[in-house]
């Protein structure tokens, strides 16, 4: 599901708030936003701008008739947990999140404030009961259809046909959804005559240290 379609859900939720709530003065409806990106990151900024544009289409103008508090997690789970707590304490009407770690952080802090997410594996991550009936206080979109994982390997094989061994790099702290994709990659690998090796890393230094332990033709990073 595309990012702008996801933003539309947040805007539609705001548009559905009772007129009586919107008419209250001086209190304005409030949205908390926790982005997993560093502040100033181009992709993160595009998310923030898309949110503002999406809300504007429903008549919501920042600091005019709605308040929006944006926080930047910078890919740091510890920082995201602190920011999630900060946002929940503000008691917003809705919290929007853009990654699995950010969603997990927010849902650890609240079971009542509505949360709209965009993640890879909401069921496996324990955010919702099912796609048809999410339950709880969270809903949203899956950002990648599961068959995409197999396509990654197919494209790799097309670009480099002689590839026989691939290292899968991931940081379990910043990409806990990696286990979901690893299962899909492992299911596709035999049909492409590929041998996979999962390598957990937490920084660039670990990549340098672990790479020589298993010689691979290519590396695929999950983030």
Any overview of this molecule?
The protein has 223 residues and is an alpha/beta fold. It folds into 2 domains: 140 residues, Rossmann fold (3-Layer(aba) Sandwich), CATH 3.40.50; 75 residues, 3-Layer(aba) Sandwich (Rossmann fold), CATH 3.40.50. The protein has 8 helices and 8 strands, in the order ααβαβαβαββαβαβαβ. Strands 2-1-3-4-5 form a 5-stranded parallel beta sheet, sandwiched between helices. The longest helix has 16 residues. The radius of gyration is 20 Å and the shape is elongated. The mean pLDDT is 85.
Short description:
39% of the residues lie in helices and 19% in strands. The protein has eight helices and eight strands; from the N terminus they run H-H-E-H-E-H-E-H-E-E-H-E-H-E-H-E. The protein starts with a helix and ends with a strand.
**Outline type:** elongated
Uncertain residue segments = none
CATH superfamily of the largest domain: Response regulator
Main β-sheet: number of strands, strand sense, barrel status? 5 strands, parallel
Q: What is the CA-CA span between the terminal residues?
A: 18 Å
Tally of separate domains? 2
Over all CA atoms, what is the radius of gyration? 20 Å
As for the CATH topology of the largest domain, it is Rossmann fold
From the 3D coordinates, which CATH architecture of the largest domain would you assign? 3-Layer(aba) Sandwich
Question: Mean pLDDT, rounded to whole units?
Answer: 85
CATH secondary-structure class of the largest domain: Alpha Beta
| Number of separate helices | 8
What share of residues are in beta strands?
Answer: 15-25%
Written as H for each helix and E for each strand, in order along the chain, the element string is HHEHEHEHEEHEHEHE
């Amino acid at each position: 599901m595309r990012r702008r379609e996801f933003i539309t859900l947040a805007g539609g939720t705001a548009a559905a708030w009772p007129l009586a709530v919107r008419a209250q003065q001086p209190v304005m409806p409030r949205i908390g936003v926790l982005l997993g990106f560093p502040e100033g990151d181009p992709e993160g900024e595009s998310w923030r701008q898309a949110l503002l544009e999406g809300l504007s289409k429903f008549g919501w103008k920042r600091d005019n008739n709605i308040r929006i508090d944006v926080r930047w997690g910078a890919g740091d789970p510890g920082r995201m947990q602190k920011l999630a707590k900060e946002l929940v304490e503000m008691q917003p009407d809705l919290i929007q999140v853009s990654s699995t770690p950010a969603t997990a952080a927010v849902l650890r802090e609240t079971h009542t404030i509505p949360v709209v997410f965009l993640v890879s594996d909401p069921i496996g991550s324990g955010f919702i009961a099912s796609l048809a009936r999410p339950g709880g206080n969270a809903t949203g979109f899956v950002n990648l259809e599961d068959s995409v994982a197999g396509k990654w390997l197919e494209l790799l094989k097309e670009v480099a046909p002689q590839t026989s061994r691939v290292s899968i790099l991931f940081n379990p702290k910043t990409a806990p959804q990696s286990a979901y994709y690893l299962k899909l990659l492992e299911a596709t690998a035999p049909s492409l005559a590929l041998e996979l090796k999962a390598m957990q890393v937490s920084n660039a230094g670990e990549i340098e240290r672990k790479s020589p332990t298993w010689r691979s033709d290519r590396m695929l990073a999950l983030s």
